[in-house]
Amino acid sequence: MTTIERLWEGFELPIKDALHYADGHSYDVALDSAVPSGFSVLSPFELDEVLEGDPSWVSSVDGLAAVDLGERGLLWGGEGSYGSEGFIARLTVDRALIWAMFFTESNPFDRIQLSGNVANFISTSGFEIAVDIDDPLIPPSPDCY
Residue ranges of the domains in the chain? Predict the structure, then answer.
């Protein structure tokens, strides 16, 4: 079991603007209103190294919005422990993590709009994040916005 899977079992995510995959790959991300997806993917990092310095640097997450994908699982968005935090995630049918993104300054995500394979997650402060639900590293095509 990877570190991110272990954290997710307790409904926790690291307090870091990041995209995490269940297989253990993590990437720094940044809110970016200059790009259509609303965020930029930066560099990969090792989650274990980040948490080594402070293993308690995690936030409890709670869902506020969900979209049932049937046999393909679930999209979930919500809040972290602090008012400014938000997260988005794709889960399996059994609610295991496929991928999750956490933002420290987005505010909670309370709405999800799904069009084909592209989900738009909208926060209470108006941030919009658009992702290909199968792989958030792949920017959705411009005609999806």
Answer: 3-45+60-144
